[in-house]
Amino acid sequence: AKAGGGTRCAVFDGSMHRAAMARLGLETDLRGAVAREELTLYFQPIVSLETGNVVAAEALARWSHPIHGKVPPDKFITLAEDTGLIGALGTWVLDEATRQLAEWRKDVPQAARLEMNVNVSPWQLRDGELVETVAATLGEHGVPAAALKLELTESTLVEDAARAAGVLRALKKRDVQIYLDDFGTGYSSLSLLHRLPLDALKIDRSFVGGMDGGTTGAVKGAEIVRTILALARSLGVRVVAEGVETHEQLAALRALGCDYAQGYLISPPLPADEFETSFLRREPP
Ligand code: C2E
Ligand code: CA
Ligand code: CA
Ligand code: CA
């Protein structure tokens, strides 16, 4: 039996009880969603501000509910976390994102060095099997570890910092990259950041959105972004700006020396085939 077995059983019993109470129709639906192949991944491009090229895709889960249509992840990821379904869901996401990456790297010449960002939930980090699952998935699909970036939020890491640091170091040892998601919204201390083997910070979109226009708020937003960039430099990590929606933001980020950008200005998350035609098969300008 694995170390996390006891916890998982407790979660499972709790969720079975709740299902028996039939209070959460959505929970029952989600339970079968993976098996019924209702889950899909959308992909949002991440561009290099230096070259303008798409260097990576962030995989974002969507649930095509037979009645409710496309359910966004903030609606079902929490539900999955609370009911223990996140284990199966997270493993599916990792497998599907890696499979798609392998296909693109093999079939599309322009995607030969494409990288993939995958979101990892707190539960997956605590589970004790993440390192093995990641290694097995990369091996199965023949993707080099350095092409996979796992995105974790600050709160995930703060919760059990010592354990998280251990898991991250084990992933780093295998060459997997670690990105700190929604940076600036959590409570991570500088000492924690120094101890974690991070490759990049993703500036939360609330700060990027605050960069525009001539208002006092905009000055503050730009100042926060500037400060995060300086911090990142001192830590020796790269920076991705999330939620870039205007040309003004993009120009300001480039001027400040931000490394990568992601947001609706470039593209919303897209189904795999649309991502491929729009960003991988496009002629270079
Ligand atoms: P996130 O990891 O911060 O992902 C970025 C979210 O911002 C995505 O929402 C994306 O569609 C949205 N976004 C991208 N560009 C813009 C922009 O320019 N403006 C605005 N306003 N929004 C933008 P989405 O796909 O609804 O995902 C929400 C959250 O759900 C994600 O936030 C992530 O925390 C979680 N999530 C999504 N897929 C997964 C998954 O496979 N596993 C786990 N554990 N969490 C996931
Ligand atoms: Ca598989
Ligand atoms: Ca993310
Ligand atoms: Ca984020």
From TrEMBL:
Q: What sections of the sequence does the record tag as coiled-coil? A: none
EAL domain: from which residue to which, for each copy? 23-283
The molecule here is called: Diguanylate cyclase (GGDEF)-like protein/PAS domain S-box-containing protein
* Species this protein is from: Longimicrobium terrae
Q: Which residues of the full protein are shown?
A: 290 to 574 of 591
